[in-house]
Amino acid sequence: MSTSRRDFVKGLGMLGACAELSVSPTAIAQALTAAREGVSGPGATDYVKSTCAYCVNFCGINVKRENGVLRAIYPDEKRAEFYNHGICPKGASGLFNTYNPYRIKRPLKRTNPKKGLDEDPGWVEISWEEALSSIAERMDAIRKDNPAKLIWQHGHGKYLIGDKFPKAFAKAYGTPNLVHRTTTCEAARHVADEITWGYHGFLPDVENCRMLLNFGANYFEAEQFARWLDHSVTDAKERGMKVVAIEPRLSVAASKADQWVPIRPGKDVVLILGMARILIERGTIDLQYLTEYTNAPNLVGQDGRFLRDGDGNTLVWDEVSGSARAFTEGVKPALRGSYTVAGKECQTAFDQFDATLDGITPEYVEEVADVPAATVLELAEELGKQALIGATVVIDGETYRYRPVAIHTFRGLSAKQYGTQTWRAGLILQMLLGCMDAVGGINLHSVYKKPQYFEESPAEYPPSRVDLQESVFFPHATHNVAQQVALTLLDPDKYGLPYTPEMQIFYATNRPMSTSDAHTQFESLTKTYNVVIDIVLSEVAMMADIVLPDLTYLESWHLSPTRYTPSTKHTAIRQPMTNVYNIPHDAYSILWELAKRLGIRDEYIEQINKQWGLKKYAMEAGRDYPAKEAVELLWLETTKGKSFSIAKEDAFVGQHLPPAKIYKSGVESKFKGPGKPKMNFYAEQLVASMKKVEAVVREHSIKAIDLDAYRTALSPLPIKDHAFPEPHKSAVDFPYYLITYKRMNRNQMGNTSTNPILNALGPDVKDNFILMNTDEARSRGIADGEVVSLETRIGSVKGKIKATQGIRPDTVAVSYHYGQQSKGLPDYARTGIWINQVLEAHPDVVSGMNSFNDTKCRIIKSA
Ligand SMILES: Nc1nc2c(c(=O)[nH]1)N[C@H]1C(S)=C(S)[C@@H](COP(=O)(O)OP(=O)(O)OC[C@H]3O[C@@H](n4cnc5c(=O)[nH]c(N)nc54)[C@H](O)[C@@H]3O)O[C@H]1N2
Ligand SMILES: Nc1nc2c(c(=O)[nH]1)N[C@H]1C(S)=C(S)[C@@H](COP(=O)(O)OP(=O)(O)OC[C@H]3O[C@@H](n4cnc5c(=O)[nH]c(N)nc54)[C@H](O)[C@@H]3O)O[C@H]1N2
Ligand code: SF4
Ligand SMILES: [Mo]
User: Pairing state of beta strands 795-804 and 811-815?
Assistant: First the structure.
């Protein structure tokens, strides 16, 4: 990049100049805040409670304000009882997010029609009126032609104003194309949950757990529940809970565990299946759980489908009558066995699973996953022992199942080509142990909330959505397919998209930077007219035609998301404390303005009421609702009428759940016993979806689908093939596994890189590096700190080696969040390695999940 920071800033006009001259944020703030609503007068010091939204942990905060100027952010002590005991360095330095001189302050219009990472957009400032009216005009023309040609994309934006406003807007406008970031995040984990137990989300019941297996949940550096897991895991460890961290890198979570099992990347499924095999062999499995709560006893025919009676009920082998029956009162399902029913050969789903474990011996696990056979045995035996299968505990006079073992993961098992299947294996292991919704086990969130997840995919073709969600390409993608939008835009014919999208609006997402094969993502941005709503000139903003500023989380109203725990739930808000750059709009009011200009305000209001479920406190047609009023309605509806003064005072109401609610409202009430639906030990719907995929591919001669690969991915049970993502098989000349991870001092790809306080936290935080095993580096003659090239099949980057014992010798790791490219960001924010430009993209075809940890690479010593 040849443009110097100074030249480039000249091109930015006032916006950059303000940053360059380092105008004191405090001075600006003092001048601007004095006149604003709710801001304290001179000489006053007050504290405002709110919810941090610098990352997705949503901690309670208490902000000190002096003369209207925000001075410090503290944790809200009242929330400790429910969630966070403290806040992290990002949250504590969150003032910088708001006082940041690099904020976008006014709407900007591109004057250079050429788009590219190296192009100067030639920004000119425009008025809000010009920006909103030109955007609305374009949207109106598109709407009259085909509203699907508009794509709305958000990432963190989902949490800033809540995705229900954008969803309501998209509905009112008429586009199906609203795309969130989940397939670049954890979608495979969600989809595995959904196809298994009918909704998504889980947390270990750490308060009662005795053994926690953590597969790469990075809760001291990342995680979405970190500010609860950090202290609750620490407390539980003091109480005696054992933590085993299974991941290729010694994360901070692994460094604080009792045992670190440095597994080979992507091979977890084989370890889990290997442990399952041992538990079954030893008979340390929860027979009651498997037969009464899951479909493991269901009879499977040779076509992979369940046997059914004339009413469509699935059949089990009844040990009482010695016949195949639906599981109704009086029937005792057999967990094992092969039978002939009405001339059809069949076998229980459990036996089918057992057969797939054939050959997954501890020695095989050692060979594939490089976990010593003895460790595999020890872990399985200890799990079996600690699960206390059959035990119960009495709380307040009620008896509960007690299984104090849990398996947790976040992206460690899901950010993978076979993420869905790998986490399915984790769920099956927990069915064997019977620890789901048991005291001390894994606590499932809203079990069976959506029975439709148990149905086969619509396998739609031609696709109605640009991201191909639930189409024949991604049959069970229920969380959008973020990275696919770019690929469809670049080649709509390949996917049979029946229209050509024309415009994209990006709200708080740096999509192309945060996705693998990132350069391809950037290329696609030349295909559409782009509007970006952000707080800094992120890379996606640099590809925009119009950029709109936004208010930050300390400047805006919203009903905030919160993080539940197994034993608490809550409602929270965010409230404005200042408006540093006198910005008149946030994304909420931008949507409102656009709806008005498009003449769809009343439809929008109707959709808002639907999306948010506003009944008693619904919005009325024919008028505007400023953000504060909207939040008041949402608060009243959600809290069933609790005074809004509580929201303004505490920003929060919390509730402790009674034990019966925690342990009896999930699997106990939804799945247990005769006549109930069953948790999917065997995911039969994947077999049905595969049949549909085959039919659709044949009917339409779709070339982009390799049926064999789909058959492997859509297997009803996890199998050892799921340990071999595409690059592990074909990138034969690339010896190292390449994984990525998050760091505490940064959030995602964008605004935290401009926060100099975070960069000053330690000697190595300004930059990232290539983690390489010390002995491996030595044997290659590579010195600590040496600059090397990291090459993959799609590109190469240069970076500094950091030699450490905390990584496997066959693996290198590079953190996320570094190597920003935008010249709208300060130089100090643009350091480090942007690893996503060399990560290969091999999405999980079940869930649409982008793969982040499957690429293989070479490390080349610089000449
Ligand atoms: N290699 C690698 N890649 C990864 C990951 C990884 O671990 N490794 N993690 C993945 C994960 S889990 C995720 S969720 C994605 C995230 O993907 P991203 O899209 O990068 O992250 P977001 O936080 O959704 O969006 C970031 C953008 O939001 C803007 N923003 C922040 N606050 C505000 C605000 O108040 N208003 C507005 N309008 N904009 C704001 C930021 O300036 C930035 O441009 O990245 C994924 N990419
Ligand atoms: N500081 C900070 N906190 C954040 C965020 C952030 O950007 N910064 N982002 C938030 C978001 S959106 C999310 S989704 C969460 C994500 O939270 P996590 O999933 O907890 O964190 P990541 O670092 O993305 O997860 C990757 C972890 O998996 C390990 N890993 C990689 N490959 C494998 C493998 O094959 N097997 C196993 N077992 N482990 C593997 C890595 O070493 C790493 O520790 O973090 C949230 N919290
Ligand atoms: S963990 Fe996230 S939400 Fe909590 S204080 Fe840190 S940045 Fe804010
Ligand atoms: Mo994420």
Answer: unpaired
CA of 386 to the centre of ligand 4 (A): 32
Pocket test for ligand 1, best of 90, 156, 746, 818 (most atoms within 8 A of CB): 156
pLDDT band, residue 21 (cuts 50/70/90): very low
CA-atom Rg of the chain in angstroms: 27
Are 815 and 799 in contact by the 8 Å Cβ rule? The answer is: no
Q: At what angle do helices 587-597 and 128-145 cross, to 10 degrees?
A: 60
Whose CA is closest to atom 15 on ligand 2?
A: 223
Output the CA–CA distances (angstroms, integers) from residue 788 to 374, 743, 772, 846, in the order listed: 37, 22, 11, 36
CB atoms under 10 Å from CB of 35, counted, come to 10
Q: What is the pLDDT of residue 18?
A: 36
- Are residues 362 and 376 in contact, defined by beta-carbon separation less than 8 angstroms? yes
Question: By alpha-carbon position, which residue is closest to atom 11 of ligand 1?
Answer: 185
Looking from the CA of residue 817, the nearest atom of ligand 2 is 7
Give the Cα separation of 248 and 264 in Å (integer).
6
pLDDT of 200-235, one tens digit each? 999 999 999 999 999 999 999 999 999 999 999 999
125, β-bridge pairs? 108
User: Which residues touch 357 (CB under 8 Å, ≥6 apart)?
Assistant: 273, 274, 276, 277, 280
Cβ-based neighbours of 413, under 8 Å, separated by 6 or more:
188, 189, 215, 216, 268, 419, 422, 423, 426
Which of 506, 554, 749, 812 to mutate to test ligand 1, by most ligand atoms within 8 A of the CB atom? Answer: 749
CA of 527 to the centre of ligand 4 (A): 26
Six-digit token pair at 680? 């999917």
Are 167 and 177 in contact by the 8 Å Cβ rule? The answer is: no
Residue of 104, 184, 485 with the most ligand 1 atoms within 8 Å of its CB, for mutation: 184
pLDDT exceeds cutoff 90 at 75 = yes
pTM confidence score: 0.95
* Index of the ligand 3 atom closest to the CA of residue 89: 6
Helix (H) or strand (E) holding 255: helix 252-255
